[in-house]
Amino acid sequence: MSDEEPSRLAQTRDVAVVRVTLDGVMREMDVAAVEEPLEVRLHDRPFAVIMRTPGADRTLAAGFLLAEGVIEQAQELGAVEHCRHPDHPEVHNVVNVFLLGGARDRVEARLAERRNVTASASCGMCGRLTIESLETRVAALRLATRVDRAFVQGLPDRLRTQQQVFERTGGLHAAALFSVQGDLAASAEDVGRHNAVDKVIGAMLFEDRLPLIGHVLVVSGRTSFEIVQKAWIAGIELVCAVSAPSSLAIEVAEAAGITLVGFAREHGFNIYSHPDRVEEV
């Protein structure tokens, strides 16, 4: 174990993209922000998994533990160390924290409180294991749905018409599910992007309509791997966002057979995986 911050952690990754604009279609390289899980351990025992951009992991862990009430002051924070997996010495995705004083006395209770909490990823070691765990649960989606460019370009405006609370507050994320014919199936707003997606898919689950073949999911903000994961499990073939996807979101979409669209605007969009679902591309 080492107290030193790993050097030169990659915070961006080169990705291939199909860029669709009013001037035509171009295939080129782009840059995506890296998203990877960080496992936080207390006294060598798993406590939580945080999805983050690598870098400043030790300070992230400290701030997270303060926000969670695990520590109440700096004096309760002992060693904060990066751990290396014995079979994967190149991995720096685990931080082990040792507590002092009253926080050390409370560690058993804190660990017990977290045992029934589902983490954001099945393993804190790497994104590849996250994808592999999903592949054991759900098969990759087949190409059963095709849409045209105009349909994709119009999705952000369709989503905006469902953001009624956002119009009043400016403070909520939104998700909407549309059929490929353009009919609204469900929409939701929430302070959390993932919550909005869960509400939409949950509504379809109550109606026993899964898998959602022939539907597209549109989300405000950026696309994280959790959103693509939720779409995969629900059988949604195309995910469209008004902002950028993370690197892990792109990797999951590739494995899932999902067409992932980002930076969707009325004048164009980027396709990061499986562009064959979009006609004229």
What does this structure look like?
This protein is α+β, with helices and mostly antiparallel strands and 281 residues long. 31% of the residues lie in helices and 30% in strands. Helix 6 packs parallel to helix 7 and helix 7 runs parallel beside helix 8. The longest helix has 14 residues. It is elongated and about 60 Å long. It starts with 11 loop residues before the first strand and ends in an 8-residue tail after the last strand. About 4% of the residues have low confidence.
The major pleated sheet works out as:
8 strands, mixed
Task: Give the CATH superfamily of the largest domain.
Answer: Cytidine Deaminase, domain 2
Strand order of the largest sheet: 2-1-12-11-10-9-7-8
- The CATH class of the largest domain turns out to be Alpha Beta
Number of strands: 12
**Average predicted confidence as pLDDT:** 85
Order of helices and strands: EEEEHEEHHHHEEHEHEHEE
Helix content: 25-40%
Q: Which short descriptors sum up this protein?
A:
281 residues; Cytidine Deaminase, domain 2; four-stranded mixed β-sheet; Ubiquitin-like (UB roll); eight-stranded mixed β-sheet; alpha+beta; 31% helix
How would you sum up this structure in a few lines?
The protein is an alpha+beta fold and 281 residues long. It has helices at 57-67, 101-114, 127-135, 149-160, 164-169, 193-206, 225-234, 247-256, and strands at residues 12-21, 24-33, 36-42, 45-52, 77-83, 94-99, 173-179, 184-190, 215-219, 238-241, 259-265, 268-273.
List the helices and strands and how they pair.
Blueprint: E1 12-21, E2 24-33, E3 36-42, E4 45-52, H1 57-67, E5 77-83, E6 94-99, H2 101-114, H3 127-135, H4 149-160, H5 164-169, E7 173-179, E8 184-190, H6 193-206, E9 215-219, H7 225-234, E10 238-241, H8 247-256, E11 259-265, E12 268-273
Parallel strand pairs: 3-6, 9-10, 10-11
Antiparallel strand pairs: 1-2, 1-12, 3-4, 5-6, 7-8, 7-9, 11-12
Helix pairs in contact: 6-7, 7-8
